[in-house]
Amino acid sequence: MNREWLEKDFYKELGISSSASQDEVKKAYRKLARDLHPDKNPGDTAAEEKFKSVSEAHSVLSDPAKRKEYDEARKLFASGGFGRGGFSPGGSGGYAPGGFTGAEFNLGDIFGGAAGGATAADGGLGDILGGLFNRGGTRTTSRPRRGSDVETETTLGFREAAQGVTVPLRMTSPSPCTTCHGSGAKPGTSPRVCPHCNGSGVISRNQGAFGFSEPCDECRATGSIIDNPCADCRGTGIQNRTRTITVRIPPGVRDGQRIRLAGQGEAGLRGAPPGDLFVTVHVSGDKVFGRNGDDLTLVLPVTYSELVLGTTVSVPTLEGRVGVKVPPGTADGRTLRVRGRGVPKRGGGAGDLLVTVKVAVPQKLDDNATEALRRYAEAESASGFDPRAGWAGA
């Protein structure tokens, strides 16, 4: 989070247009994140750097407020609003018709290495840029801006999703500096309130009938001064680092469901509250089970004689096997219900197991079985049974 953001094209990083919808932003990020993830490209530093750039772009464009401020700032700079020669970091300019010229206005003082928590008067430059860079944008330093939310994905097996599982997630994102613990100050020291602006980050001046506010030069609009900045994070309190967190996926999670982990997102600047982590769960299919809400489904192969005479068949569940009684005369395709053997419910209990019987027709029979089947067919016909009686107008 620094002035280099304004020199980056986050839309280009994600391969989308500036008019892309939020869904298009998310879709583009997910595809790139899957392809570039460090786990998929071990030892590939180029892919790792690209992954970081894509993650940074997503952290801005996925947040409607940040995206709006980013777009406004880029439009402002592109139009030459900071001087007739366009935007130049650290350049100068003052207000005059047609552009900023005249009195010195040093943007380097706003976005310097120790910048953070910028504030400004209503509608001023600080409101736009302070919010964009997650450095305040509020009128007082007593309300630090939280970190951005972070999104990631994981894929589970069908039974893992149904029963619940604990999975490790490896992710690269801005996190609190481990050296200064997010304060931005060298260990053993602390930031102090800026005496020039009394911690507000802005200096107000009156000129005739007009009042003006400008960023405080002493603290670079942060409201605090770090005399001894942390060497590892250069006073920002944030580092991009790869970390592994353990996530408990609750039983019964569905394909596409998002799970929120409070406080596991992007770190806030200089100890501000972190954002949240949202994990989108993808569930792979299973060879035996299907799912209908909280109910498990399966198809049970049976013989014709088992349906006619009745039987008890052992079938699998999520927790071992259970016997299912097939009553005599059961029709092919009938669904039998086993109570409480389905997917666990959030409020307790579980759904049901729905077993659909399906006759398996043998492709080959030996002579004895063929002869026995012919005798049965004759006996069946002699008994008066006609499976097509009353069918199709017959």
Automatic annotation (TrEMBL):
Zn(2+) 1 binds at residues 177, 180, 230, 233. Homodimer. Residues 34-55 have a biased composition (Basic and acidic residues). It comes from Nocardia uniformis. GO terms for molecular function: ATP binding; heat shock protein binding; unfolded protein binding; zinc ion binding. Pfam families: DnaJ, DnaJ_C, DnaJ_CXXCXGXG. This is Chaperone protein DnaJ. Keywords: Chaperone, Cytoplasm, DNA replication, Metal-binding, Repeat, Stress response, Zinc, Zinc-finger. Participates actively in the response to hyperosmotic and heat shock by preventing the aggregation of stress-denatured proteins and by disaggregating proteins, also in an autonomous, DnaK-independent fashion. Unfolded proteins bind initially to DnaJ; upon interaction with the DnaJ-bound protein, DnaK hydrolyzes its bound ATP, resulting in the formation of a stable complex. GrpE releases ADP from DnaK; ATP binding to DnaK triggers the release of the substrate protein, thus completing the reaction cycle. It is found in: Cytoplasm. One of its GO terms (biological process) is DNA replication. A zinc finger (CR-type) spans 164-242. Binds 2 Zn(2+) ions per monomer. The J domain is necessary and sufficient to stimulate DnaK ATPase activity. Zinc center 1 plays an important role in the autonomous, DnaK-independent chaperone activity of DnaJ. Zinc center 2 is essential for interaction with DnaK and for DnaJ activity. Residues 164-242 form the CR-type domain. Its main location: cytoplasm. Residues 9-74 form the J domain. Belongs to the DnaJ family.
